[in-house]
Design brief:
alpha/beta, TIM Barrel, binds 3-hydroxy-3-methylglutaryl-coenzyme A, 12 helices, two-stranded antiparallel ribbon, binds magnesium ion
């Protein structure tokens, strides 16, 4: 077994990626209880909400209330697609922004109504200003492996988009398998290349678990030297504009894998399951992750 990192950081995306696609309207207080329980579990980097158009993603329309009532702890990221989103986020007191762009033009058009190049050019001055003002900026790179509309994406195209954001001075790249079409070989190859080309950036892998290869992809990425993963408690999630894609790989199941490899995260698995209890009754579908099922049986 090649050498694996001793410590891994999990970036919890359940309150944002997890809930954005949920059909039932979740009460804001319940979202806050979920976020606070996740903090209690030891998750100190989290995507907590997004400042996007409420017409496009109604579930995230309470982002102002979320930010006004959230217990400040660690790095609280908010998703912002444009200047309007960043303005609102700053007014709400956010200081860490996640911008997002798809490698695939067609996906990007569906997701944010712009071509990839238009999005990059829109974001360039925004990122420049955010960095001048000392904000943390994460760039989420969607459809890094495959696009639900265009098919497989050439690796060079993904690397080229990542390079543009690294050159703009972002702090972190979160490189995403939006529709769960990555496999361990493709994950190892892309993340090894990203590690080599951008050794000085925080590099995070974001896997959706549509075909249940999320854990295998994480294991392959660990071997490529990745030590940061976006995960979602309860395996919630999916992008409303990526048809067929399901939730992110589940925080509690990733924890089981990492614990079995003696990799430290500082996150308590049972407390993650307790956090899932806060939202489970409000969801339109049951939670069926391996570790949450076992936790329920033990209760
Ligand atoms: P648009 O319709 O082209 O926007 O949408 P526009 O600039 O023409 O403005 C139209 C209206 O929206 C105007 O209001 C604007 O003020 C308003 P009106 O005059 O009609 O009343 N508006 C906004 N309102 C609130 N917040 C804003 C905002 N911007 C404009 N920020 C837009 C463009 C980007 C707004 C829209 O397409 C949008 O909100 N898309 C969001 C899509 C989204 O949230 N997708 C899910 C997150 S990405 C994801 O899940 C992938 C990820 O997990 C990684 C992976 O797995 O791949 C990160
Ligand atoms: Mg996602």
């Amino acid at each position: 077994m090649s050498s694996l990192p001793k410590n891994v950081t999990l970036i919890e995306v359940g309150p944002r990626d997890g809930l954005q696609n949920e059909k039932n309207s979740i009460p804001t207080d319940q979202k806050l209880a979920f976020i606070h329980a996740l903090q209690q579990a030891g998750l100190h980097e989290m995507e907590v909400t997004s400042f996007v158009s409420p017409k496009w993603v109604p579930q995230m329309s309470d982002s102002m209330e979320i930010m006004a009532n959230i217990r400040k702890q660690g790095r609280q990221l908010v998703l912002t697609p444009n200047a309007r989103g960043v303005e609102n986020a700053l007014r709400a007191g956010a200081d860490s922004m996640a911008v997002f762009v798809g490698v695939s033009d067609t996906f990007n058009q569906h997701n944010i109504n712009r071509t990839t190049e238009e999005s990059v050019e829109t974001l360039r001055p925004i990122i420049d200003q955010l960095k001048k003002d000392h904000h943390f900026v994460r760039a989420c790179i969607s459809t890094a492996f495959h696009c639900p509309y265009e098919g497989f994406i050439p690796q060079e195209q993904t690397l080229s988009l990542c390079r543009q954001f690294v050159d703009m001075g972002v702090d972190e790249l979160s490189v995403a398998d939006t529709d769960g079409m990555a496999n361990p070989l493709a994950s190892f190859t892309l993340f090894q290349e990203l590690k080599q080309q951008f050794p000085n950036i925080l590099l995070t892998a974001h896997f959706h678990d549509t075909r249940k290869l999320g854990l295998a992809n994480i294991y392959a990425s660990l071997q490529a030297g990745v030590d940061r993963f976006d995960t979602s408690a309860g395996g919630l999630g999916g992008c409303p504009f990526a048809p067929g894609a399901t939730g992110n790989v589940a925080t509690e199941d990733v924890l089981y894998l990492l614990e079995s490899l003696n990799i430290e995260t500082g996150v308590d698995m049972d407390k993650v399951c307790l956090a899932v209890d806060e939202v489970a009754p409000y969801l339109s579908r049951p939670i069926e992750t391996a570790m949450y099922n076992l936790y329920k049986r033990r209760k």
